[in-house]
């Protein structure tokens, strides 16, 4: 991939500044974006597609599909120096983040990644130097436990599929960026109602390959092919649509 393009989201001022990350983390994860932008994959022309996930504005994201996509984004956010906190009902599925973050010299986990129960708790303060990605892995109809209230805080909702109640929920309707994997026809038609999609977009959603996603945002509809490096393969396994 020779060039990179950043996906615009409302209120974005481009990719975030660079962050410092420990050498141990860099040994496990290669940085995936420039100046804090997180590379999602490549477009049909082979150009890198990045999103400013970590911004000086409270930000919401939604992923719809398998767990692979959400975990890859979490790894790449960590590689830019972000703190990643996962609230989930399936902690075993996210333990790889803690392992990827590594350990301090005294054997304690590096606090870049935390796996917590799916219940409200106090979040650390997010700043430009320590941006925060909060991942809410709470099923298809998530409660608003951690709405982004501060600059440099991004909350990402991991939806395994689209539920009719999502159409009236905050997470989907107010998301700055939505990443959609392949959907069955009834799910694609629900997406059409939620985001006012056109007929050809509905059809495209049903025909995506396992390594393809649609990035949906403000005036944005971009098909992206997921790309993984060798170290990510060792942590996550091969790219796939399911969990």
| Strand fraction | 15-25%
Low-confidence stretches: 10-36
| Shape estimate | globular
Instruction: Please state the structural category.
Output: alpha/beta
**Total domains, how many?**
1
Cα distance spanning the termini: 27 Å
Strand segment count: 11
CATH architecture: 3-Layer(aba) Sandwich
Radius of gyration: 17 Å
For the record, what is the CATH homologous superfamily label?
A: P-loop containing nucleotide triphosphate hydrolases
CATH topology-level fold name: Rossmann fold
Largest sheet: 11 strands, mixed
The level of helicity is: 10-25%
Biggest sheet, spatial arrangement of strands: 1-3-2-11-10-9-4-8-7-5-6
Task: Count helical runs.
Answer: 7
Order of helices and strands: EHEEEHEHEEEHEHHEEH
Overall mean pLDDT: 83
* CATH level 1 name: Alpha Beta
Which properties best describe this structure?
11-stranded mixed sheet; 25% strand; 23% helix; Rossmann fold; alpha/beta; 243 residues
How would you portray this structure in words?
There is one protein chain. With about 240 residues, the protein is of the alpha/beta class. It has seven helices and eleven strands. The chain has one domain: 3-Layer(aba) Sandwich (Rossmann fold), CATH 3.40.50. Helix content is about 25%, strand content about 25%. The chain has an eleven-stranded mixed beta sheet, sandwiched between helices. Strand 10 (about 210-215) and strand 11 (about 220-225) form a beta hairpin. Helix 5 (about 185-195) crosses helix 6. It is globular, with a radius of gyration of 17 Å. Residues about 10-35 have low confidence and may be disordered.
